[in-house]
């Protein structure tokens, strides 16, 4: 920070103080401002601009006092630039001083240190041409010289000096020495900066490159007829007797500059014609004056929102430059309502009055220095043949290469007359210009003929790069490091800070030794690492920030006089409708760009692809906050949704990981996403019925086929209804269905090489559970037509099946003509209705029921599923493509259903069989839904945010205890989705979606073997039974698997699955045995044809028009990948993806992308899949009448309702039906995690650094201040084990004063955790229970089962029993009261 103290001390105001700290803080901690979300980046740049306007505008020369003239007397631009600023008639006039952006640095004793010709030879001279690619063309290079001729030129001395090349480089210099005129120093008459330099051009944006900077020059250019300027019949400039072009500024020109000057003479004259036609009474002088105003504004606008946007090609600068002209409200708003608000909302153009920030307008010495861009020029101009037919991307044939040295001065003018305007312009458009890099300064400019102001040649040649190095020193422009410090930019301390190029570092060391402070500005800017998309350095760019805005806001004709009265209505309309140089070219050469230009901007190489069109007619700022990938959907959003989208989009774009946010902020992020996904990611497939179809009271139960749930659509969610969509279907041609070949994809990217497990996170019960749920929710109706997939020759030898046949998914007409015309039918019910055990129609249900006391059939001998005596098939709901893991869970929940029937029969003896079945089904389905929501999903997505999020889905933010006590209070956030007053389908009939099916392709969870445990042995470490034997998984599917299960038994099967980790959802982890699999019919019978399931799943996604990975992510507002390295860091994966898909990331299959994607820490599945989960996990609850309006005692019965409320996990169900199983064999908290986990070691409480409780994922340490836990004195179970009763161990008390002394050096109020610790100590032997909540912060906190202010989330302690009994009666706010 010491390097900035001088600059910092300048910041006198409080705003300046804080602004400086903001930008310095961002820079110092390594946040790259250009990678921030657009909005934040614009804020950063706005703060910088404020600081620069305050502290980096230094006047040179005296400032007059008072108003010197009436602007009404000069409603036009004068020839010499005077009479623009009402307070200073000379400001910006010809012959005024260059200003300063920083104090001058006297370098008289360092003018030749190091020698300028050494610097130019060793660091600047071009070795090999480096271009800018497609970003910038030769028109762009010519444009900046056109602007320089508009703005700046120094008055020189009449005496010459000479630079001589030192011996070490003399042989490499085209000129061994050269003479030039010094810059003239003039007394300023001011005590501050005593000497300065004069600008012999007008620095206003007044078109002086076309009109000249004085009256005598202008006199030679005007025709004095209809306001027009002189122009040749061939559309080029006329010339005087000496061959010098007749134009505003002709010194040191070349034909690129001359071409643009001619173009804007044509523009001026066309404006004169338009004005003459509109206003017949205007005379020659008025026409000229109005046309000059309009032409100058068109030039300024093109530079601002066209040229600069291509120079700094980023979304942020696109937004910033357009905001300079239009304001953040945007063009449409400004065109409709005029300038509204200040410079931020309405833009700089059209402000009520000009603003020079207290410093008379001028351009600055530093501005001149950063505009040294001769490296943009190539060595040759490539001329094109316009008589040829346009080639690829409208590119004309190359006919001739002309050396650039032959295209400057009068010689160049002669050449241009032979070339012609159109050929010259098209040739420049199709040629990339040079890059502003080291070793890229044109060598031909080291021996060039300079010109006088009148365009005549001087006798002495000059070495231009050497001269430019000298000029910066001569004019006292700070060298690179001091220049950066003065602009609040962090300087370099070693050459490696500047560049990674080892050769550049070596040469810099050779030229400047180790003294980085001597580095010349031009060299530093060329060597500096460029911001991605920037053609210039950041150092140069920050000068642009100051001066690009200043040229507009200080000019009366862009602010107070930018109106119809001064410009005329026609003139102002002309400016407002011109958006680019292309518009000007189209006006004068109507077919040129249509025939030869493929790019969007005339400043990019013309054969470049056009930029994506932005269709959003909304505020410019918001428009450019958004990646082009999302503009279509953004354009359809409502205003509030756009704001919400920008929040989540900015978080994603900035690289801020939402899953690393504090829990509350993470939940807000997910809440915003869920809202947007509901609005824009739910598409109905099929016709919507109109009106209420039935009275819900007529159907207070779940029907066999899923009908009569949604009162507004009796068929919603039922069997044989359409799968919905989360995004528009992607229609593929037959050929694209096989590109790349699915069997090649499966072989090279999916097939398991070596089993990768999920570690302790998920076990085989978890893997079985998701197939259990899939059997509950979804299955596609197939066509009767079979097709065949064949392995390509390349992979055939690696495929278990060389080919296989399967049935196509049946496509059914939806009856919609203007939407999704065809869809696919779900032959299961998509509600959470337990159809995995009940079936999806009456006939299936009939086979399952006993018709006695509401119960379902179950084997009496082993508690397993009954089988049909004739064919051996399961007697359970949906039995297609099952295995014993699913069968085991089905059996468990049939037991659960029957146990509920018993409980209901006991409680309500009058209930008959049908009513017992109906109530028991409601309760069983709800138990399954609850387990999936707050147990399975929590383990799948093992993070604090998702623990909070999933419990909030069921209980709301107020928590279980509150909801159990007071019922559902508030909306879906406070009270949860379950128990809402009415179901909410968000305007789209409920269904599961094709995309949901796709992300539930989780077969990689399945291992190759089932490890059977020996339950006759005593439990080992962590209650782990011994391994007995292994069974191949292929032997555990279908009928063969059911027979194996009958031999293993329910308990052994469940314990074995509990102690075996499932597979990870990664590439090369898809079970090979699933590539030669017997598929089944809907009735559970085997089909004759084996299938390659991995290949089939790739094909199914394509066949069902599910978008591929990148488009899938775009549709979910997730940032897509642009290269394989964005997806994974694994080089082998990247190479294989490239081998299979080439470079086309858009062709990446969804399944492959999800498996390759970098996982969020704690997530067993990828983020892409998770956001479909986010939509559908909530939708399955809130769209279902039986989880919302009918989730009550009246429908469920009081006993049934209580059953659901008290069941929190699969472990609870297992404990109910297999007493002793979990106590003996389960060490983990959840039945879905590996039972060998260490989550239940003897409990040790632990405290965070600030007194908050730490996350259980971190290392634990004993509580300080409440006593150390006496191990073995009592059994202390995991605090994560929700709802269970425990006894606190005896604590060894510590003196509280000692504790305070240890925590803090001074006395203070108790923090919430200390209060909690005291209560633990006071009620050592009192049972307590564990409840989910957040960490506590300092100060009084209401421990209402979820602390909303917390950062990390995992638990809280409920003290009600102890406090009510001993301390505070029935007060719920016990901890808050205690604090």
Automatic annotation (TrEMBL):
Renumbered residue ranges of the record's region Disordered: 1249-1270
Keyword Oxidoreductase among UniProt keywords: yes
Domain of life, per lineage: Eukaryota
PROSITE patterns: PEROXIDASE_3
Cofactor annotation: Ca(2+); heme b
Keyword entries, A-Z: Dioxygenase, Fatty acid biosynthesis, Fatty acid metabolism, Heme, Iron, Lipid biosynthesis, Lipid metabolism, Metal-binding, Oxidoreductase, Oxylipin biosynthesis, Peroxidase, Plant defense
GO biological process: defense response; fatty acid biosynthetic process; oxylipin biosynthetic process; response to oxidative stress
GO molecular function, one term: oxidoreductase activity, acting on single donors with incorporation of molecular oxygen, incorporation of two atoms of oxygen
Residues that, per the record, bind heme b: 1003
PANTHER family: ALPHA-DIOXYGENASE 1, PROSTAGLANDIN G/H SYNTHASE
Protein name: Alpha-dioxygenase 1
């Amino acid at each position: 920070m010491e390097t900035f103290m001088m600059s910092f001390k300048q910041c006198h105001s409080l705003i300046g103080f804080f602004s400086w700290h903001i930008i310095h803080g961002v820079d110092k901690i390594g946040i790259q401002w250009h990678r921030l979300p657009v909005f934040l980046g614009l804020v950063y740049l706005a703060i910088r601009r404020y600081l620069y306007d305050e502290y980096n505008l230094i006047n040179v020369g005296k400032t007059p006092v008072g108003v010197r003239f009436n602007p009404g007397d000069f409603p036009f631009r004068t020839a010499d630039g005077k009479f623009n600023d009402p307070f200073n008639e000379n400001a910006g006039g010809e012959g005024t001083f260059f200003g300063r952006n920083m104090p001058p640095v006297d370098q008289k004793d360092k003018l030749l240190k190091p020698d300028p010709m050494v610097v130019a030879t060793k660091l600047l001279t071009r070795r090999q041409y480096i271009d800018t690619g497609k970003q910038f063309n030769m028109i762009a290079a010519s444009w900046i010289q056109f602007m320089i001729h508009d703005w700046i030129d120094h008055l020189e001395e009449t005496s010459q000096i000479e630079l001589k090349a030192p011996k070490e480089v003399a042989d490499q210099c085209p000129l061994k020495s050269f003479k030039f005129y010094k810059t003239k120093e003039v007394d300023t008459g001011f005590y501050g900066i005593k000497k300065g330099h004069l600008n012999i051009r007008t620095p206003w944006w007044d078109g002086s490159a076309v009109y000249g900077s004085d009256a005598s020059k202008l006199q030679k250019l005007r025709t004095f007829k209809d306001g027009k300027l002189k122009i040749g019949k061939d559309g080029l400039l006329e010339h005087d007797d000496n061959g010098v072009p007749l134009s505003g500024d002709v010194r040191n020109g070349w034909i690129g500059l001359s071409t643009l000057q001619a173009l804007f003479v044509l523009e001026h004259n066309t404006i004169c014609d338009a004005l003459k036609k509109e206003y017949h009474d205007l005379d020659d002088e008025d026409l000229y004056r109005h046309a000059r105003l309009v032409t100058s504004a068109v030039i300024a606008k093109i530079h601002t929102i066209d040229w600069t946007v291509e120079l700094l090609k980023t979304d942020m600068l696109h937004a910033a430059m357009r905001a300079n002209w239009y304001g953040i409200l945007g063009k449409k708003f400004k065109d409709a309502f005029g300038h509204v608000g200040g410079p931020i909302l309405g833009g700089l153009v059209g402000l009520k009055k000009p603003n020079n920030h207290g410093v008379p307008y001028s351009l600055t010495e530093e501005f001149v220095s950063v505009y040294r861009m001769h490296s943009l020029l190539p060595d040759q101009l490539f001329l094109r043949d316009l008589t040829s037919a346009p080639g690829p991307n409208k590119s004309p044939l190359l006919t001739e290469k002309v050396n650039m040295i032959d295209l400057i001065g009068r010689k160049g003018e002669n050449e241009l007359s032979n070339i012609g305007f159109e050929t010259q312009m098209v040739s420049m458009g199709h040629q990339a210009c040079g890059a502003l890099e080291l070793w890229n300064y044109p060598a031909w400019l080291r021996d060039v003929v300079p010109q006088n102001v009148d365009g005549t040649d001087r006798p002495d040649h000059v070495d231009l790069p050497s001269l430019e190095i000298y000029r910066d020193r001569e004019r006292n422009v700070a060298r690179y490091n001091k220049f950066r410090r003065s602009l609040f930019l962090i300087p370099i301390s070693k050459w490696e800070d500047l560049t990674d190029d080892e050769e550049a570092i070596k040469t810099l060391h050779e030229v400047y030794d180790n003294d980085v402070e001597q580095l010349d500005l031009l060299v530093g800017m060329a060597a500096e690492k460029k911001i991605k998309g920037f053609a210039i350095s950041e150092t140069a760019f920050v000068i642009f920030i100051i001066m690009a805005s200043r040229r507009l806001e200080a000019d009366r004709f862009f602010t107070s006089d930018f109106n119809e009265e001064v410009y005329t209505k026609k003139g102002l309309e002309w400016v407002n409708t011109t958006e680019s140089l292309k518009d000007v070219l189209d006006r004068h050469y109507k077919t040129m760009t249509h025939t030869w230009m493929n790019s969007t901007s005339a400043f990019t190489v013309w054969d470049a692809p056009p930029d994506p069109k932005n269709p959003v007619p909304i505020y410019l700022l918001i428009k450019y906050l958004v990646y082009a990938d999302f503009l279509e959907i953004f354009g359809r959003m409502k205003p509030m949704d756009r704001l919400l989208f920008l929040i989540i989009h900015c978080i994603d774009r900035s690289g801020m990981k939402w899953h690393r946010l504090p829990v509350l902020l993470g939940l807000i992020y997910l809440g915003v996403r869920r809202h947007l996904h509901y609005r824009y990611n739910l598409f109905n497939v099929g016709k919507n019925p109109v009106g209420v179809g039935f009275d819900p009271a007529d159907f207070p139960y779940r029907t066999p086929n899923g009908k009569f749930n949604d009162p507004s659509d009796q068929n919603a969610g039922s069997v044989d209804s359409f799968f919905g969509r989360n995004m528009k279907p992607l229609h593929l041609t037959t050929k694209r269905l096989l590109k790349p070949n699915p069997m090649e994809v499966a072989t090279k990217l999916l097939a398991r090489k070596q089993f990768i497990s999920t570690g302790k996170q998920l076990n085989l019960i978890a893997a079985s559970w998701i197939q259990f749920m899939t059997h509950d929710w979804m299955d596609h109706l197939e066509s009767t037509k079979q097709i065949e997939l064949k392995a390509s020759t390349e992979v055939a030898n690696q495929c278990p099946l060389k080919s296989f046949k399967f049935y196509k998914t049946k496509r059914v007409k939806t009856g919609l003509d203007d939407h999704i015309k065809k869809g696919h039918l779900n032959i299961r019910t998509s509600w959470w209705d337990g159809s995995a055990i009940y079936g999806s129609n009456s006939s299936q249900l009939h086979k399952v029921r006993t018709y006695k006391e509401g119960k379902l059939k179950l084997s009496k001998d082993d508690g397993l599923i009954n089988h049909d005596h004739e064919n051996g098939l399961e007697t359970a709901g949906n039995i297609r493509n099952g295995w014993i893991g699913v069968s085991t869970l089905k059996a468990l929940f049939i037991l659960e259903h029957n146990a509920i029937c018993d409980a209901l029969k006991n409680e309500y003896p009058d209930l008959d069989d049908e009513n017992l079945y109906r109530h028991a089904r409601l309760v069983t389905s709800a138990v399954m839904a609850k387990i999936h929501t707050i147990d399975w999903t929590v383990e799948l997505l093992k993070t604090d945010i998702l623990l909070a999020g999933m419990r909030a889905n069921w209980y709301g933010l107020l928590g279980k205890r509150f909801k159990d006590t007071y019922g559902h209070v508030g909306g879906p956030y406070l009270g949860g989705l379950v128990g809402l007053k009415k179901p909410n389908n968000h305007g789209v009939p409920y269904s599961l979606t094709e995309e949901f099916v796709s992300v539930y392709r989780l077969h990689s969870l399945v291992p190759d073997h089932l490890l059977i445990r020996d339950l006759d042995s005593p439990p080992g470490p962590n209650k782990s039974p011994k391994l007995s034997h292994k069974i191949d998984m292929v032997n555990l599917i279908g009928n063969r698997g059911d027979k194996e299960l009958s031999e293993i038994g329910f308990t052994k099967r469940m314990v074995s699955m509990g102690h075996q980790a499932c597979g990870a959802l990664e590439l090369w982890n898809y079970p090979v045995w699933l590539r030669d699999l017997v598929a089944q019919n809907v009735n559970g019978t085997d089909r004759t044809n084996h299938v390659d399931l991995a290949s089939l799943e790739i094909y199914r996604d394509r066949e069902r028009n599910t978008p591929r990975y990148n488009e899938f992510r775009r549709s979910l507002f997730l940032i897509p990948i642009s290269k394989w390295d964005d997806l994974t860091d694994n080089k082998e994966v990247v190479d294989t993806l490239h081998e299979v898909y080439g470079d086309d990331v858009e062709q990446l299959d969804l399944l492959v992308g999800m498996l390759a994607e970098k996982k969020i820490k704690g997530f067993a599945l990828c983020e892409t899949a998770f956001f479909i989960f986010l939509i559908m996990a909530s939708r399955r609850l809130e769209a279902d009448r039986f989880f919302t309006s009918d989730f009550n005692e009246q429908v469920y019965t009081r006993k049934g309702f209580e059953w659901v409320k008290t069941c929190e996990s699969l472990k609870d169900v297992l404990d109910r039906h297999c007493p002793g199983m979990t106590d003996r064999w389960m060490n983990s908290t959840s039945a879905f995690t590996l039972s060998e986990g260490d989550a239940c070691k003897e409990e040790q409480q632990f405290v965070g650094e600030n007194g908050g409780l730490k996350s259980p994922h971190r290392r634990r340490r004993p509580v300080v201040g409440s006593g150390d836990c006496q191990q073995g004195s009592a059994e202390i179970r995991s605090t994560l084990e929700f709802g269970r009763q425990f006894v606190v161990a005896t604590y060894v008390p510590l003196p509280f004063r000692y504790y305070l002394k240890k925590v803090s050096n001074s006395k203070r109020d108790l923090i919430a955790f200390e209060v909690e610790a005291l209560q633990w100590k006071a009620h050592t032997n009192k049972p307590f229970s564990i409840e989910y909540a957040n960490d506590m912060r300092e100060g009084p906190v209401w421990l209402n089962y979820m602390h909303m202010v917390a950062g990390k989330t995992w638990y809280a302690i409920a003290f009600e029993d102890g406090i009510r009994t001993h301390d505070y009666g029935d007060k719920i706010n016990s901890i808050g009261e205690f604090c």
